[in-house]
Amino acid sequence: MKNRRDFLKEVCPTVAFAFFGISFLEACSSGSDDDVETTIPGSGSGSGSGSGGGTNSNGFTKEGNSYIIDLEHSNFTSPPSSMGTGLSNVGGWMNGKSIGISALFLRISDTEIQAYTNICPHQSHDEWTYRNNIFKCSRSGANHGKEYSDDCNSSLTCYNPTLDGNTLNLTIS
Ligand code: FES
User: Fold this and answer.
1) Edge-to-edge strands of the sheet including 66-70?
2) Atom of ligand 1 lying closest to residue 121 CA
3) Residue whose CA is closest, atom 3 of ligand 1?
4) Which uninterrupted H or E stretch holds 94?
5) Between the CA of residue 16 and those of 31, 33, 138, 139, 152, what are the distances in Å?
6) Cα–Cα distance for residue pair 4/7, rounded to 1 Å
7) What is the pLDDT of residues 18-60, one digit of tens each?
8) How remote is the CA of residue 130 from the centroid of ligand 1, in Å?
9) What DSSP line would sit under 51-73, residue for residue?
10) Going by CA atoms, what residue is nearest to atom 1 of ligand 1?
11) Model's pTM, two decimal places?
């Protein structure tokens, strides 16, 4: 980025006068405007980071609706207790809500993790508990607190992530 004075020095005076007239020449004279920054189009270095890739400090990367998850990251080994027990051990579960993944996870074996929507089929609540093979919606009140089996035969939508070592590939559809 160039400041205004540097810019004016480069273009002053004859060419600029032809285009902008007297008022521009006045701007070319010395003054006390060094603290005024002028952004010259095309002169910036750019700071955009793009999208679709890179390491996410939350332990996953996202591309569209697809996630690549590092199961060794603490967000997946030891989530906040209200979000589950973590996925390190068989029977462990977690809700991805607190890290921006709209899914429930359940480790069903050493080599398999199942995933489900975390949006309640009843009225879209997204907080849950899990016990005895049942996900229970945490919304309180009449007609809430509904329970859904973890066997993918309930109305709780199942996804089919693939597990490669400690990397889980999930597409939410
Ligand atoms: S929103 Fe889940 S049971 Fe009502």
Assistant:
1) 60-63, 66-70, 167-171, 162-164
2) 2
3) 144
4) strand 93-95
5) 18, 19, 69, 68, 72
6) 5
7) 444 444 334 434 444 444 333 333 333 333 333 344 557 899 9
8) 15
9) SS-S--TTSEEEETTEEEEETTS
10) 123
11) 0.69
CA distance 160 to 124: 21
Q: Average pLDDT of 123-148?
A: 98
Residue nearest to ligand 1 atom 4, measured at CA: 144
**In which element (H, E) is residue 104 found?**
strand 103-109
Q: Which residues line ligand 1 (CB under 6 A)?
A: 120, 122-123, 125, 137, 139, 144-146
Residues in the chain: 173
User: In the chain, what are the domains?
Assistant: 2-38 (no CATH), 60-171 (2.102.10)
* Both tokens assigned to 168: 């889980």
123 alpha carbon – ligand 1 mean position (Å): 5
* Identity at 65, one-letter amino acid code: N
Give the ranges where 29-146 is alpha helix by DSSP (H): 74-77
Q: Report the alpha-carbon distance of residue 58 to residue 35 in Å, rounded.
A: 40
